[in-house]
Amino acid sequence: MKKRIIIRLCFLFISSTVLLFSCNTKENKTPPEGYAAFDWFEYQGYDPIYESLEPGPDEYLNPLLAGFYPDPSIVRVKEDYYLIHSSFSYYPGIPVFHSEDLVNWTQIGHVLNRPSQLNLDNLGISRGIFAPAISYNQGTFYIVCTVVDGIGNFVVTAKDPAGPWSDPAVLSFDGIDPSLFFDEDGRAYLVNNGSPDGEPLYDGHRAIWFQEFNKDSLKLIGPRKIIVNGGVDIREKPVWIEGPHLFRANGYYYLIAAEGGTGVNHSEVAFRSENVQGPYLPWIKNPILTQRHLDPKRPHPVTCTGHADIVKTQYGEWWAVFLACTPYKDDFYNTGRQTFLLPVTWINGWPSILAGENHVPYSHTKPMLQEQPKAMIPLNGNFTYRDDFADTSLAMIYNMIRTPREKWYYFEDGKLMIKARNEAIDDISQPSFVGRRQQHNYCSVIASLQYNPQNEGDKAGMVAFQNEKHYYFLGLKHIADSLCVVLETGSSEGPKEITLSKSNINENTAVYLKIDARGKYYDFYYATEPDKWILVMEDADATILSTHKAGGFVGAYFGLYACAAEDL
To answer: Looking at the predicted structure, is the pLDDT value of residue 12 above 60?
Structure first.
């Protein structure tokens, strides 16, 4: 173990040195006034579990998509598989991935990538897009979803899952987590989570509702009815039955749904019926997936398993995608809810994902499908990804916070130019922020920055962000006619700031910013010369960016950010 740690430290030292020297080959040109120029942005993940794990050539790694990719929904069309996820108040909304082998995934677009499709104005970061579900019928793709605190439930369609997708057609029903099922006779049905009839019997009492859907008019028709009340056994007061999906197999209609809430008690349960409208009876061996009964002190635990979707391959295998978390300590994780993949086993006509004392594995035998090349942008295992901003558009891994209403960035000479606007990261506005997910508990992010502020208090740099009140900002701030290095902490106790004066920093100086994540700690550094890191803060509390402390449903992001202290 000690040898591996020494090797890792040496690798990080060499990697950082090479990157800093290489960035000096570009000319340092003064950015326009009020703009931050980011020369490059690098992410490197190195979770210990993958250093000791040696998967064979016929195995894949879990999580399938590391970091904040929750509420997976999957569909197969011939030999192609498409996977989507919740995006909450990040923009563009609903990432779309494609694969031919269920293992190697490439992002091909976002469903909601036009402001006309997605209004996230003034929403908290954990509101917005909840649990989209994708389906396909006769040449058309359908996605149903909810904008919480926005337009509510809606449906969009496309001929190509890469887009363009239609503007939303609003669906008039209460509740969340809608999902469409197309039956063999051509009729379609929608299931969703909603309140029960009358007053709830207890806190967390929910129901699964059923109604027919007209695929031509994109409207719900006919009566609505409850097909699951409470959960598997209402006498046990089950909570938060949600994320339902219908499918057909073995002469039955199957309904799978999450139960127990999206925390450590999360699970997936199954029901079936001979008639699409029910009655749906639960399996006596439910849940079909959970880890809540396992020892929380087990090494490298995978927790919060649930919210699954199931797909059948063209060769007859059944597989499930589901969300789960990988805490670094107790119930603390900054990576959010991630997407995992496991096979489905059929037991006496019932689907089972994981039973008994079995742990969710970090590696597993691949599906029997033709392997495809790995994606250019890696999504799991330990990896390094560097963006030199050579393109003139943002890579699909990036998101903004809420819906942009103006263009505040551009590309020039291989740099991302971000305008400092009077929209702050700790407000519910639309800040000048471009970020990517934290995908590992142990990782490093480094960025090269030049900044030309306009006014006192203007700042630009890098953010580790969980929500409006839980973040770290590391960067440059204009203080008393000088550019100073600043570390700002946002938490439930309010913002705090550490200022390091550095008189030789100016708009022509390239400053390098680095955040090291080490489970429950973040370390912050800056440098003005290659390989001369200056520690700003060591062992900063990373748990304030965990869901356990910050609340909500998202994972942490690392982003590039600029903010003006006043309107211009």
So the answer is: no
Q: Are residues 278 and 331 in the same domain?
A: yes
Active site residues: 71, 242
Tell whether the model's pLDDT for residue 7 goes beyond 70: no
The answer to whether residue 483 sits within a structural domain is yes
Are both 334 and 436 inside the same structural domain?
no
Q: Are residue 396 and residue 357 in the same domain, yes or no?
A: no
Q: What is the 3-state secondary structure (H, E, C) of 468-509?
A: CCEEEEEEEEEECCEEEEEEEEECCCCCEEEEECCCCCCCCC
Do 259 and 400 share a structural domain?
Answer: no
Rounded-to-integer distance, Cα 30 and Cα 509, Å: 9
Domain of residue 390, residue span: 2-47+381-563
Domains of the chain: total? 2
Residues 297 and 424 in one domain: no
Residue 448 inside a domain? The answer is yes
Helix (H) or strand (E) holding 194: strand 188-194
| Residue 432, both tokens | 């000048």
Whether 372 is covered by a domain: the verdict is: no
Q: What is the token pair recorded at 418?
A: 């971000």
| CA-CA-CA-CA dihedral for 341, 159, 246, 343, to nearest 10 | -20
In the chain, what are the helix, strand and coil shares in percent, each to the nearest 5? 5, 45, 45
Asked if pLDDT for residue 23 goes beyond 50, the answer is: no
pLDDT at 501: 79
What SS3 class is residue 227? strand
pLDDT digits (tens, 9 = 90+) for 51-88: 989 889 999 999 999 999 999 999 999 999 999 999 99
Asked, for residue 568, whether it belongs to a domain, the answer is no
- The DSSP annotation for 64-128 comes to SB-SS--S-EEEEETTEEEEE---BTEESEEEEEEESSSSS-EEEEEEE-STTT---TT--TTSE
Structure tokens of 280? Answer: 């749906």
Please tell me the distance from the alpha carbon of residue 134 to that of residue 117, in angstroms, as a whole number: 17
Provide DSSP, 396-446: TT-BEES---S--EEEETTEEEEE-BS--TTTTS--EEEEEE---SEEEEE
CATH number of the CATH domain containing 541: 2.60.120.200
Checking DSSP bridges between strand 267-273 and strand 281-282, what pairing results, if any? antiparallel
Phi, psi at residue 108, to the nearest 5°?
-110, -5
Write down the number of H helices and E strands in the chain.
3, 40
Angstrom distance (rounded) from CA 547 to CA 466:
8
Query: Which of 340, 365, 390 delimits the end of a domain?
Result: 365
